[in-house]
Amino acid sequence: MNGSCLEFNNPIRDAISRIRFAPQSNNLLISSWDSSLRFYDVECSWLRLEATSEAALLDCCFQEESVAFSAGSDGSITRYDLNSGTSNRIGNHDDIATCVEYSNETRQVITAGFDKKIIAWDMCAAKPLVFLGNLDSEVESMSLSGFELRVAAGSSVDIYDLRNLDKSVQSNESCTGVPIRCLCSIPYSNGYAVGSVDGRVKLEISYPFSSNNMGYIFRCHPKSRDGRNHLVPVNDIAFNPVISGAFVTGDNEGYITAWDAKSRRRLFELPRCSNSVASLTYNYEGQILAVASGYTYQEATEMLHELPQLAYCLSSLIGANHAFVHRLQQSVADFSKTNCLHYPDLTP
Known about the structure:
This protein has about 350 residues and is mainly beta. It has helices at about 295-305, 310-315, 330-335, and strands at about 5, 15-20, 25-30, 35-40, 45-50, 55-65, 65-70, 75-80, 85-90, 95-105, 110-115, 115-120, 130-135, 140-145, 150-155, 155-160, 170-175, 180-185, 190-195, 200-205, 215-220, 235-240, 245-250, 255-260, 265-270, 275-280, 290-295, 320-325, 340.
């Protein structure tokens, strides 16, 4: 299961912020801090589109196979026609826009940012702004599942109903007690997983028509060599859309680990990346996992405080940003029988 690195005639010049597979194809959307949105055909190894903008792009998502959106560091929310290559700005946040999602149920674009606001943009109406919410903290991560919008702000997950956005937050669940780095809704159940800056993952899963609900917290790296807890931020989580309970985590040290939520087992590790894992995404069939590797926004922020030679640090990292694809030949069921490694310490 060694990964294949995607090739670009013009290399990605800065950190990748997000990668997303298309809803019904193996086309990959890539947003980056080099102010470009790339649309890549994985099957043909072909860059179909590279759209430049004035600001760094912190997130991206599909509306459908040929339409996408991005969130920019200047607060801009931009819509792209991936066939024609045209784009238009649909609105702005008052600060950096960090998250963008599209809801098929309401036909709205949901965005969030450092201005502590959640905005829903109705693509069918003359006035796109339909809701404005003010939060207590900056939004770090956001995820949609049906009509449920989950927002990670600080160390909690706030849950909204897209049909009643004028109401207050329906649920405010304290998570690991430390800041959340990433949040991912589970596609086949009413649940989610969050990854924290101290290396812990929390799962909350409730299955429809079943009483076998579960919730637990575990560390991706339970113990380091000296016997102490290994505190490495979990940067992203992705659930397999086909195999129930299967998900992967990617962390700041380049580790990509597959897990089985039901048996609470580690299934396998993919070859370690030379840089941090920035983003993960499965294709619609759950057979291809794309991995974005490079330095992250959080690492760049830390460099600002630690090293005065910022220009040198960033120049040494530019060019080390890659996107890999891993074709998963075995199912989770196969791994659970043969290659499964039990993790006894799935505790905080």
